[in-house]
Structure formats: C-alpha cells, structure tokens
User: Fold these one by one.
Assistant:
Number 1:
Amino acid sequence: MGRLLLIWRLVRGDITRRRVQSLMLVVMIAATTATLTLSLALHGVTDSPFAHTRAATNGPDVSGLFEPDYHGTAGTLQQFKALRRAPGVIGSSGLFPITELELTYGGHKVRVHAEGRNSNRAAVDQPLLTAGQWTTPDGVVVERSFADALGVHVGDTIHLAGRALDVAGIAVTSAMATSDPLVWLDSSTLLALAGRSEPLWYALNLKLSDPAAAGTFAAAHNTPNAAWLFQSWQEIRADDSTAIADERQLLATGSVLLAIIAVAGIAVMVGGRMAEQTRRVGLLKAIGATPSLVALVLMAENLLLAAMGTIAGLAVGRVVAPALTNPGTSMLGNPGSPSLNANTVGLAAALAAVVAVAATGAPALRGARTSTIRALTDPARPPQRHDGIIDLSARLPVPLLLGLRLIARRPRRAELAIASVAIAVATFIATLMLRHTTVLGVKAAGNILAAAKQNNLDHVGNILSVILVVIAAINLLFTTWATVLDAQRPTALARSLGATPNQITGGLASAQLLPGLIAAIIGIPAGIVLYLAAGENPSQANPPILAMLAVIPATLFAIGILTAIPARIGANRPAAEVLRSE
Amino acid sequence: MGEPRELSDREPLHGYQLRVVQEVLLALLVQSGAHAYELRARLALALGPLADTLNEGQVYVTLGRLETSGLISSQRVERVDRRDRRVYELTEAGRERVLAWFEDVSWPKPAPAEFHLKLVAAAATGLADPVEIVDRQRHQLLSGLREAQRAALAEPAGAVAGLLLEGVVLRLQADLRWLEACARFWSTAEGRP
Amino acid sequence: MRAPVAMRTPMVSARGLSKEYGSGAARVRAVRGLDLDVEAGETVAIIGPSGCGKSTLLYLLGGLERPTAGSLRLVDQPLEQLPEAGLARLRRHALGFVFQAFHLVDELTATENVELPLLLAGASPHRAHKRAADLLRSVGLADRAGHLPSALSGGQRQRVAIARALVNEPAVVLADEPTGNLDSEATTEVLRLFEQLRADGQTLVLVTHDERIAATADRLLTMRDGVLVDETRLSGGSGRSLGAITGLEE
C-alpha cells in the first residue's frame, strides 16, 4: 500500500511540476483519439445498406417494369403478368401502377416516380418504414434519400399533381436504385391523380428459387422489342453502388486520412516525449528507486495522462462525429449507426496503452541499464556537434548563427519537427485536393437528389477539412512550442552574452523556419500521395496547383508567428531564472 | 611529547607556532654533517617565503641546545676567513630521536579553546561584545589569509614551499568558517542570561 | 584597454536597489534598499551566508534581473530605463559574467565558446577566433583550445568561462560563486587568474562564500538578509607579516 502511495505521490508531483508538458501530451492524445474515433465512425458508415434493405424488405430477385405505350414493342400486360408463374419463380408481388407526377413542396417542383400500393403487405418488396406509417388514401410515403433531399418529414403536407397529401411515412426499398425521386401512394389515389395526362406503367417483383441466377432470368426475359424490362437484383445493387460511389469515396478517404494523421501525430509526439523521460529516470534512481519502481512510476504517469487524453478524445469524437456521420448516413441511406461503440472504445483504449508503453519503454529500459549519474548529468543524448555548421554559422548574421546552432545541437528534434510539419502540410494539401475533386460532373443539374447530394458532399467535405486543418494546426503549435521550451537554456545564455531579444526571436524563428521550409517542400508531394493512398481516383483529382504552392509561404508564416509569440514573451523575461544554479 | 616544549615554552600572543625546529635540524643532519649556515639554507628551501622570518640566531641557539642534550656533536674546523667554524654531526641518540619523530602522529591541537573561552568570558563579564571580538579576529585572519595566499600563488607550481603556504591558507579558511559560526551564535545569544 | 571613464565616476553605482519575489505570505525580499559603488580597477568581494541575496545582487548588477526599486548605473549609464535590447548591447562591452555552473556550450570547443560573445556582437569570425586564441593562451589553456568542455576539468572549464567573460574587454567582470563547483586544486587555478586580473587593473565584483576568493579583494562587503552589514578594507599582501601567522619568530 505504501508503495502505491509513493508511486502516486511521485506521479502527481511530476505532473504538477511540469504542467505544460503534461497538458501538451494530454491534448495531443485527445486530438489523436478524437481523430481515430471519427475515422472509425466514418468507416462504419461507408457500408452500403443495400443488403440490409433487401433482407428487411424481402426485396425482389428480379424487378420488372412494363411500359405499354412504347411504340414498336410487343407483349401485352397479360403476358407480363403471366411471368409470375414463369419457371424458377417462387414468389411475386405486383402489378403495381407507376406513373410520373409533379410534386411541389417548399418551393421545389420535382417530377417524381409514384408507385401505387395498398394497405396490404406485399409478399415481395414491402418497403421498410424508417418513420411514420404506410400509405393511406390521403397519405403518401416518401423514399428516404428523396425525403432528405427535399427536407420533408412525417406530417408535412406536399402537393402531388396539385392535390395536397400528408406525408404518412418514410421508407427504403431495394427494388430500385436511389437515383430517382420515388414516392408510394394508395393505388386508387395514384390512378386518380395520373388521369389521362400521365404515363402509366406497371411494376412486377419476382422472387426466384435461385437468386444467384437472377441475371440469367432477366436476360432470358428481356427479349428485344419487349414492352417490358427486367433487372436483376445484382444490377440494381450495382446501380445503387454507382449512385453512392462518390459519397462512399469521400467518407472512406476522410476516414483513412484521419487515421493516418492520427498515427503519424502520435509517433512524433512519443518520440519527443521519450527524450524528456530519460532525465526523470536518473532523478528517480538518484533518490533510491529501483529500476522496477522507476518503470512503474513512468508507466503510471504515462498511462494516467494517456487515459485522460483518451477519455477527452472519445468525448470530443462522440460530440463531433454526428456532424460527419449524419450527413454521411443520409447520403447513403443508412439507418444511422452509433458513433461510439465497443469497437471504437476498445481501439482507443488500445491506442492509449500503446502510447503509454512506447513513451515509457525506451527510457525505462535505458535507465535500468545506465548508471544513475550518467542519466542525471548527461541529457538524453548530449547535444550534437557539427564542425561544418558551427563554422558556417559563425559567418552568418546573429539570428541565423543562433538558429543554425540550435538546429545542429539537437538534430533528432529537428527531424521530429520536420516530420511534424510535413504531416501538417500534407494534411493541408490532401484537404485542398479533397475540396477540389470533381465529383458530380455528369449528373444532370436540376435533379433535386443530385443537388442534395452535392450539398451533402460539400457539407461533409467542409467538416472533414475543418477537422484536418485543426489537427494540423495543433501539430504545428506543439512542435514550435516544444522547440522553444527546449531552447530555453541556450537562449538565456546567449542573452547573458549580449544577444538582444530581437536576435533571440530571430534565432528561434530561423531554427524553426529552416526545417519548416524543408518540411513544406516535402509535404506537398506527401500530401498528394496521402490523398491518393486514401483511395481517391487519380483521374478525378484536380489539384489546385497555385493554392498548393501557396501552402509553402502560408506554412512558413504560420510557423513564424507561432514561434515568434512565445519567443518574444520569453525574451523579455529575466534570463537569471534559467541561469541560476540555486 | 614533552621535550620540544623545553625549547620554547612561551605561548605566542598570536598565530601558530613552529615547535619542531630542532627535529628538523636533526633530520637535516642524517645524511651528513653540516655547518650552521648550510642547515639554515636547507631549512629556508623547505620553508620558502616563511624562511625569511627565521631568525639567524634562532638556528644557532637551537643547535646549542641540541648539543647540550647530546643529540648532536660538533667539531671545530679551522678556516681562514669564515666566521662559522663548527661542523655538526648527528649522534646515535639523535638518530633515534629522528626516527621516533617520523613515527609520531601527534598533531597541533585543533580545539581553539583559548578563543572560545575568550568569547565566553566576554559575554559573562559584559566587558566586551563577543560579536565585536569575532569581527576583529576575522579581519585579522582574513588579512593573514590574504598574505599567505599571495605568497602561495607567487611560488612556482610544484615548489615544496607552496605546499606549506597552502596548508596555512586552508587552516585559516577553516578558522574563518568557525568564526562565522561564532558570529552567528553570539549575535543571537545576546540577551541570554 | 577598458572603456574610458572619468577617474572619479564609479564603474558600478547602485542606490536603493531592491528586489522582491512572490507576494503575500510567500514574499521574499532578496535585496533591500542596497547602496553600492565600485571604482575602476577595484576588486570587490561580497560574502554572506546562503540565501542572503548576494547572487541576486550580482544578477541585478549585470542586468540579468530587473530591480523592483532603486537605480543602477553601469559605466555611468542608467540601467533601469533601458529595454532588454539596450541591456543586451550594454552587456556586450561593459560586462563579463562568470557563473557558478560555468554555463559553457557543451557542443562547442573552448575556442568556440570564448569567441561566442564577439560573434554575437558582430565581430568578424577571423577577429573573434584570434582574440579567443589569445585569451585562452593568457589563461594557460592554449593546449586545450580545441577541446570540448566534457574533456576539461572543472577548473579548466571555469578558466574557459573567465576567458569568455574577458573576450569583449569588459569594463566590469561579475563572478557568481566562481569556485562554488570546484575542488581545492581547481580553486587555486581560478584564484591565480583572479589575482592576475586584479594586477592588470580589471574591475571585479565577486560573490562568494569561499574565504580564499574573498581574500583576493581590496574591499570586502558582508551581506546579510538583503543588506550590506559590513565593509572591510583588507590590509596585508606585501608579505612582510607572514611570520606573524606562522609563528616562526620567537
């Protein structure tokens, strides 16, 4: 018990003493966890609900449409109907009258397909209600994606061919691809509304003994010149997939991007953290802790911070996810998936544990092996010396002199900074490319579903972009901050030797800007690769070259500002605090 | 060891005292006999700057006493134009005395009892302020430290005399630290009954 | 050699200098209304127990801390109105600082460490290098000029630090416990240097609790609880009274 108390005291003491570093770790892990949560949430959404809908609605294996007024075609309605008893057919529903009607609602005027049903349950293809109830003489049921596009809900009133009808319910079906607006009405109402002016077709839904052979069946009965057309369920699914391909692509890309950035950010942060820990190991050993106790203390502290970060990240993810997944699910017609499930929590917890172990492992191991005095007096790695850089920097103006030497003394940290900034820049680039993908080139303008889809794509795209930019900004902020913190002692010394605050700020800025420039240049192709690796179609990519090139100066500007502010603040505080030995 | 005291049993009013001039002279005669002026020269080498304070006469007096005690013997040597005519040699007894000296581990006593009692007495009688006494003593010791340190630094590195001066410096430093403690003690002890 | 200053004007002049930290119950008054003058060419030692504020005083004199109250003049320039940049520039030619912890740059050689203040002041690399080499020679480290601090002993490191403090020909050298981290032998090395500097006429202000360092000073100031409680001019140094302390005379 005493040991636990001791560990707790040591952990708490260290966290309160190094508040800024601890906070940084927690925020970084939270950002990463939130990112991962969103990534998983999006991933869960990208599954097409087609199979689910087909099972729930007892969807047809073959779906047929009879168009009686089509010139030059052969076949009567009776013949069409007789196909219910064709070989291989084990169930059917229909004939359902279908017509085109004009629907008016909320300023929209749309031509919709209307299918006539009655209150009986159809044996095949009974659309699944996601809200409200089935058709009534005065009611209409609207297909889900169309309802979302229109913005209509149960209880609203729409006008169909001039007649006011209540929206009785909202449903999904697998008998048709979701590319055309679709509603269901009471058959008699439909026939009354259609009158003589609108075309009238008939739908027939068939269930086969061998669903896999639906394609053969449809082909067999799709004789040329037939007044009817059969589609197998596989063809419908393909249509559906094509229809939602872009949405799925966007969500999948977003999901992968977020995951990659999350992992990369964590790796960089852990690398930075490990350096701090080695001195801690020395201190603990010096006060008498055994290597195992040291490892326990480090692990406890890192686990605690990682846990706090994870919980915060999960909370943020839970709050933000609906903003991403709701438009996503409505785009795909998916009946909503929970943003937080056992999978997500489990993965996030695993991530936290991995971070804790990684950040603990190396220092603890090194600490157990090196002598206590070495760990205390030597820094994690003693500063590096590069003859060439020291000579070169002596010839340069003072800010560059300081900056180059700051970089040279901790090349590992400079590498980490480059990696961090490159990730941020790659994120910016990938986001830019995301925003500029040509997605809906071929769809007809004026189709309300297409317009709604574009809106949704924009919406999701925007949110993704914002999230990615925020993550990139956090990354950038912490990288610059960490460098300024690390450079406290050398800059205090330089001030005592006569360097002015401007020279110090310039030095710190150039120590960041030089790696930043390299990182920005690396980041552009990295961003393109990242975007493509996330699954985007290269032919669809329309990279805005100018904007992408502008990212370089923008990043440098951001780095400059982010460095200059803490540097200026620090440069005016007395140098004595850092230099005193007491 | 009581014998050195018979040579010089007068306690000085200040400073440390070098009581073992006679032992050193005996040791200097181990290898061979020597004239008094040679002995003085060898002594001066070991003492460095401090040797200047060595009284010429002191060496002669000490040699005389040693001879009286039978630790050395002397012989007159006739020289035409030299003042000093004696050559001194170590006797067996003297040789034994030297060996015994090398074995001896006694050390000048570290307890500064006299000064300590001086402060106690000052406080008890109320005739003087202990803190002022300490300050005056500190000043004096610091000056001495300065002297010794300058002399020590002036010696070439590796000179044996420098070692002696370093010893003086370090002891004075130790004494000064104790005086600092005395100052602290007596400044808060004021007002105690 | 040094910045030309009128004979009567002190190099360092402080009036009513105060420094406080913290607030409320945790308020610490490290330096309280202190007056101090240091003449050109003087060596002043400030001694006192730990926590008496002597290091704070030195950092105030060097412009590395801002006083809470009082005025301070360095080579006849008032410091309290100077912004940080101005202080830094003043430090370049007026001050050399020697720290207890040496504060050498670990990855630079001795020469590169010594030439750093010159480079920061804008001197050419060639001139800086030459001057650094000269100084290292004068402190007896010519054969160690290319070594890293990790390859130097404590005394050698502090000597490099002293050389660095001298490279800009400062008007005043401030030293904070220069032998605090050194053993006896290293202390002797540094002592030798300070004596040499004193003989060359360098103005020195030393903060120390080592009596040997204090004994090199012309003037000894004792500090206690943030104020100067004693000032002594040390006599001696001519070698004439050595016998008095060794008791060789009878």
Note: The two ends of chain C are 48 Å apart (CA to CA).
Number 2:
Amino acid sequence: MELLSNLGDGFSYVFGVVPILTIVLGVAMGIIAGATPGLSPSMGVALLVPFTYAMSPTLALILLVAIYIAANYGGSITAVTINAPGTPSSVVTAFDGYPLTKKGKPGMALGVSLVASTVGGIIGTLILIFFSGPLAKVALKFHPAEYFALAIFGLTTVASLGGKNWIKAFIAAMFGLLINTIGIDPISGVSRFTFGLSFLYDGFALIPALIGLFALSEIFKQLEDGKFDSKAAKSTNQEWPTFGEYWKLKLTILRSSIMGTIIGIFPGAGATIAAFISYDVSKRFSKKPEEFGKGSLEGVAAAEGANSSSVGGALIPLLTLGIPGSASTAVLIGALMIHDLTPGPQLFISNPEIIYGLLASLLLANVVLLGLGFFGSKLWIKVTTIPKRILFPVIFAVSIIGSFAVRNSFFDVIACLAFGVFGWILRRYNYPVAPIVLGMVLGNIAETNFIRAVMMGGWTIFFTRPASLIMLLVAVGSFAVPLIQARKST
Amino acid sequence: MPKIVKTSLLLLLFLVSNVQAEFPTKPIKIVVYTGPGGLIDITARKFASIADKYVDATFVVENKPGAGGIVALKKVLQSPEDGYNLYACTKSNIAKFIQVGGRDYVNALHWTAMLMADPECVISNKQNEMFEWSDIVQNALKNPRSQNWVGPAAGGLDHVTAMKIWDEYGMEAKWIPYKSGGKAMAALLGEQGIAYVGNPRDALGNPNLYIAAVSSKQRLKVFPNTPTFSELGVPNLDNEYMWRGFALKAGTPQDIIDWYENLFIKVTADPEWQEFWSRGGIDVEFIGGEEFANIVRQDVETFEYYLTKSEIITTNNSNGLAILASGYPFLLFTIGLIAILLIVGLLIYRSNISHVLGRVMVIGFFLIISTILYLQTLTFPVNSEVGPAIVPRLWILMIVPLSLLLLFRTFKRKEKVEANGPRMDIVLMFIGFLVVYLLIMNYIGYFISTFLFIVVGMIYLGYKNHKVTLIVATSWILFSYVIFYKILFVSLPIGKLIEGLF
C-alpha cells in the first residue's frame, strides 16, 4: 500500500536524534504550557512559532505538533490537582478529577487522564491517517444549520450536568451564552453591550472566566469552611490505577476517542464540545452514572479521551483542505506559510515528506507523552500534599498571572476575580458553574451559525435539512430524558 | 529673556537634537495586531530580519492581538511619540478604526509607509454549477439576492470590496461572514457559497478553487490565466487591493520619520525581501509621505460610505423604551432597579422568611442584568431579517421565565440548600486583600505586590513558619520573573512608582 510505505518513510525521518529530541522538548514544553492556567494549547503553539522560523519546515511542524498534543493533556493536571483547568477542554476532566483528589486519590485521576489522553491521541491520529479523505468531505458538507444543531446538542448536556438543579443549570448556561454576546458581533460588525468601553470590544476572554469560576470559587468555598489543617492527600505514595482498572475503561476510552476525533473535524467545534458531549454520552452508557461528578474514573477517561483525540480530528481539514479546525491549527497554517508551503491537498503531492513526517511524529509524540507524563505525574502529585495555608495564596497568585498572560490585559485579571466571587456566590446557592463555561464556549458557534443558516435558507432551514433535523431531535431527546429521570427520582 | 531661561532652552535643544541624532538608542518594538503566524506577523518579522542588515538597531516583534487592531493601537497610543513603537498596519485596520472610533482613531497615527499591496480577487469553486465570472454575474442579475458570497467579518475590506463589485455590476448578493478567511473558504469548498472575496494566495493549494477575476491593472505573474476586471469590461475595479505597511504615533518628530523612510527604501530594494514576496505573487513597493496619506484618506472615505450604507455604522435610533438605554436615563433606571432589589432584600431580611434572602438576591441579579441588556438591544440597528439583537434577546427571554419559575419555587417549596461554612469573614477578608493587591500593583508593580500578597495571605491563614513563608513568596517571584517576564515576554506591570525611580 502506498500509504503505508509513505508512512514508513515518515517514520524513517522521525527516528533521528534531532527529531526525537525535538519531540521530547516539545512534549515537555507543552505539558508545562498546558498545566499553566492562562497558557492554552494555541498560545503554547503561537509563542513558539517565531522560534521555528529558522528551522526546517518538517522539524518546525514536529515541534509545534508535539507542543499542541502535550498542552492539550497538560491542562488536565491542574484541573485534577487544584481544580484550575489549564485549558477550556479540561473543565470536563475537573468534574471527576478534582473530587478524586479531594478523596485523597489524585494518582488515580492523573493516571487515568494520562492513559486516556495517549490512547485517545493515538486513535485520533490513526483515524487521521486512514480516513482523512472521506471525513474531510463530510466536514465540508456540514451546513451552518448543522453546526447550530451540534451546538444545541452540546448545550443539552446541561440537563444531565444539572441533575435536580436543572433550572439553575439552565439559567447558568443561558447566562454564559449571554456573556458571550458582549463585544463586536462577528456577523453584523455592530458592537453590543460594550457601553463604549474599548476593553469590552473583544468580550470576556474564556480563560480568566474559567480560572475564576473554577479555581477561585473553589478556594473561596474552602476558605469559608475554615478548615486549613487537612491536606488533599497525606503523602506522595499514591494509589495508582492497576492494569485491570485501565482495562475496564477500554470501551469508554475507545468510544470517547472516536467521538472526539469526529467532533474535532468540524472547524470551530473543537476539543471542548467534544469533551462535554463525550462525558454526557459516557454517563448514559455507564453502569454507575450516579458516580459521575463525584469522582468517576469513567468520567475522567471520557473527558480526556475525547479532548486528546480531537487533535487528530482538527488536523484532518488542515491537511486535506488547508482549513484550520481549531485555534491551534490556525497557528500551524501560519507556520507552514512562513516556510512558503501552502497547506491543502497539493501538499501531499508537492511535499509528502512533510505530511508523513508529521503523521509519524504525531504517533511518536503520544508515546513520548505517556513516558514523560508518567514521571511528571509523580512530581505534580506533590502539589496535593502542600498545606492549604501555603497552597491557597499561591493559587491566587497563579490565577492572577495566568489571567493576565492571556492578553497582557489588566481587565482580564479583574474579570477573573469577579468571576471568582460570582462563581462562589452561585455555588453557595447550588448553581453549577460548568454550564456558564459551556455557554461561553458554544455561544459563538450557536449564534453565528444560526444567523448564517437563516441568511442562507430562511427560518425553516433547520427542519428541512435532514441532518440538522435529526440532530435537533436527538438534542431534544437527550435534554428531556434526564429531566424525566430526575423527576421520577424525587 | 533672562539668561538662565535662554541657557536652559539651548541646553534642552541640544539634548533633544542629541537624542534624535542617536535614534535609536534602545530596541524598537514592532507592534503586531494579530497573533504569530498571520501574514502581517510574517511581514513584521521578515522586515525585522532584513532591516537588521541596514541599521544598527534591535527590532522586537510584539504581538498584541485583539479587537481587529484596537488593542495594539491603544498600546502604541499609550507610549510616547518617540518612534520606538512601530505599528504594523494593514488596510483592514482602517476599516476597524472607522467602525469603532471613527476618524479620530485613524488620525491618531502617522501612516508612515505602505510596503506592499495584494490585489483583491473573486475565487469560485469548480465543483459549483457556475464558476466563471460572467456566469456568476448573469445569474446574480437574473436572481437578485439569491447568491451567497462568503468571506471574513462584515464591514472588513473583503466585504467592502464585494459591495463595490456588486455596485459596479448593478447586481445584488448576500454576504455571509465567517470568523476567518479559512472558515469562509471551507464554506466555498462545501458548495455553500458561490464566491469568496480575498487574496489570490488563498486559491493556492486546492485544485478545486478557481480565481474568477482579479482586481489589478495587469494580469498577475503567478496567475497568468486569470482575467482582470478591466478585461471583463469594468475598468473601475482595477485597483482594489489590500496593503500592508507601518505607522507611527501621530506627532513623532520628522527626523525620526525620515530615518524610517530611509530604512523602508533600503529594505524595499533588498533582493532577499523582493524574492521572498514575489514567490507569493506580491510586488513590493514603498509608498510614503503625502502619497500614502492620500491613499489612507481615500480608504477612510470608501469605508465610511459602505459601512454606513450597510448600516454597520449607524446613528442611534432612540425611540420609545430605547431612551432608557443610554445616558442619564440609563443610569437612573439602573440605580432604580438595584434600589428595588436592595429594598426587597431588606424586607425579606426583616421578615420571617429570611432564609431565602440569598437565593432571591441571586435571582434578582439575573433579572436586573437581563432587563438592562434587553434595553440595550433596542438600540441595535436592524440591518437584516436576523439582526444583531435577535440572539441576545433569545437568551434573555429564556433566562427571565426560568428565573421567575425559580423565584416562585423558592417561596413555594422547601429547597434543600447545603449548609455553607461558618467563616464568611475569611472569604471577605481575602477578597479585600485581592482588591488591595490589584490596586497597589499599579503603583509598586507586579513583583513587590505579589510578594506582599503571598506573605500576608499565608500569615493571615495562620501559617507559623515565617522562614518558609519568605521562601515560598521569593520562589514564586523568581519563577514568575524568569518564566513569564523573561521567557514568555508577558509585560507584567512594573509599577508607576518603581518606573519613576529609574
């Protein structure tokens, strides 16, 4: 097969001292970037782009892709240890990862998140290698009406996130969607709810909101409890998952990886939606859905499998069509352009060594991630043994520098603090905060595609296109079922 | 004139001329309004590496993305007009400036140099039933407003170019904006749009893409088979292009501008520079001074005309309730709403249902925000059947009934609320620390204020070992200095007082 022999060439290129060192370096930097709140995978990649200008194009891409993969995983480390998701997609990892830490089992959560990430990453890459052609065609046919339906489907996960508090969860999600409309409207170009303040033109950045709603509100809540003598974990000698425990998760990881890759394909949908939807679906398939949100290993695996495999998915439109599927891949396009390479199908013909070198390095980077991540986890776990009296002030400091670093903006720091206080108040009255994040992530996709669809085909288009109709019906179903179940159980 | 004034004036003149003669004495920042990797970022970096050959200066590229260039503009305007902040600009900036701040924003910069221009073109998809320019025009004339044209944001250069093309041909089509050119290209490839307006480079790399017509005087060297608009019978469209160049803060001394112009001439003549851009089919040519000022002036007028025509810039329509959305009425109305909430809060607090106080206040907060934002939507222009007000109103109209339902349930049913911890005082104290910390950061800078915050925080929480406290705070400062300040170039505030010292 031509594909396999090309891939062989790719591997023969990657198995050199310099490429392997580059991958190791990239993975290490990526883990750190992902684990630092305020540095997202796309920023990790973007920050390194200038350094790659002097490298060969293949080596530059290998480095950037290694960072991209590792940063996507790195976000889960802080999500698990201090409830501060380093990346938007690791919000979902925090749902179960942080409760596990509170129970004194951070090792279980870190172990599962690492293995689910690597396996997810490899599955995503394999799908990318073998099915990119047909999948890219599907992605192209995806009409704005379908994007809207996908976003609505993502929003319905709120119903199961909220459980008995579904009204509150729903209000929180709508509030997130409303926050998302602040700033210049991407469709009409009109500035909305900015009150003439220039720092509001771009709206609220997601990362500061994330840090505030999750990390800060959690500390405020623990400060209110007033118990500072307990530690999350007693020692660094941690309980790690056994092979049997990993093996039990095989179906969850496989399912979420496939879903993650597929959702990752659609430009703009990305890792966060993939993680939310996969979490929701896994909860429905699970034999123990009641454990979700309280420290379920399946929940961690579902979230991490989906968000890591979405990397492979996001690369499909990039490589086959030259279209970025995510913020990070948009930066990769820039990196290709500076080397005078035009991303797109022509690249397979004109520079196959780059494409296959990239694919081979994706697989290798995931293996390296498993190794580095394993040793790294043993270090990270020490964070959970730090006394709270030291940890809390430092987490505040981390949050503040992290939210500042996103755009070098002081406004974001104030926003982070405000979201922290807001999140703390909401949590005091049993409002879940995750739906706000979901609303902020999905708002833009839902709104712009809703308007595009209506502009293109009128108000009825959502029901006349079969794919969109089916997705909307599934969304209504997946929204109604947990509500009915919640009603029955009360 | 007293002697002392004369001497000091002379001294000042001497100092000023001396400083200028030595320009540059410190690194020059090239402020880029996008993240790394975009075309303007590449322009800035390539320029920096070539300019290095000709002048003894250090160029540092600083990415300040946000709001289509407004964030980067603010950064330049906050610095003195000493020539050390070079704004890497494009024609898109003019569109955004006009849209957001009007001519004041444009005039805040001295538009120093245009270094290159890419012609605009219309790209179609060979898979579509029509892709030749004449077919597209015929079809559009026959069925007005039936074609979907795709491209980046409304009100940007590509949108305005499309409107100009439609005007010249007397045709009508719909502009479907996407978040980026790439996403719009996906829609074209997915056969959801008939045409895409943008850079000819965008058509490279995919054999299905077809450049239907290009807006330039002659055919492009890289695309010799693509007809120009004048060949297709519309000579008025031979000069629509995207330019890239540099601007300085208005008021920068003339000799610094001269220094730059000199440099731009040298870089433009550089073979490596020319060779780099010609590979992408871009001709480089330096245009500065009055000629560039004229181009900018013309661009301003074009954008003003089309942005007004497409109702992206509008005069506020304050009829009916919309009066409450701005100015004093807005302020009074908002204060009134908050006052009502506080009075209700006070009544509940005094009554026998005081346990619901917190919950009612939270719901009240959601209702107030919803009301205020709903009033704002009344001022949004109604420029299409799905205007900018539709979706925010949809979200608000879902929040309000749900909040009312929740309010009803709060009073009606006994809801089990988890008991909260006893130490609200610690939380409020910490919020106080954080507010003070952020306030003093402006004066004494990030490093000292953070050090103090960590020390005070740990002591307040009752951590006894002061040696460890100092070690933790110091290590955090060192860590953030090395990683964030030095390696990642995060411009952490140094503080007004500290800067004053040096």
Note: The first helix of chain A runs from residue 2 to 14.
